[in-house]
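=== RUN LOG ===
request id: a7f3
mode: sequence -> structure
chains: 1
length: 151
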Amino acid sequence: MTTEKLKDLIESTETDRVEVTRSTDDVDKFREAVCSFSNDMAGRGQLLMNAVLHRDYQSTSPVRFYQFRDRIEIQNPGGLYGDASPENFPRVNTYRNPIIAEAMHVLGYVNRFGRGIARARKILEENGSREPRFQFETNHFLTIIPKHPQR
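=== RESULT ===
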């Protein structure tokens, strides 16, 4: 990944509703940390997109993207919504933000409704990455992507 593409990625994902936290301002060190995970960017991107799509927009908390030595965490405000529960996740999905979901579909960010988690799992599996984990709380949803086992 070039420095320019990395800068574009970092800048394009941070808004007043999405916060990217990193431990260094040195782009080369950040690139090295991203590459060391060796997770397919589309897999993480899919999970980050899900966080933006399914977040509770009545909350003033941002979507958070944290990168640690052994994992990436994506946290969004709002727990599971509607008919979704820890027992039936991800098979059952209710859209908290149907207008945003439709806009993402029309713009090509979502190819099929209700397939984001399965798609991200497949991409990460094909890359040799470990299964992402999910934690469900009343006020937030947390996705944990473990570091690639060979990195």
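=== NOTES ===
Residues 14-19, 27-42 have pLDDT under 50 and may be disordered.
The first strand starts at residue 18 and ends at 21.
=== END ===
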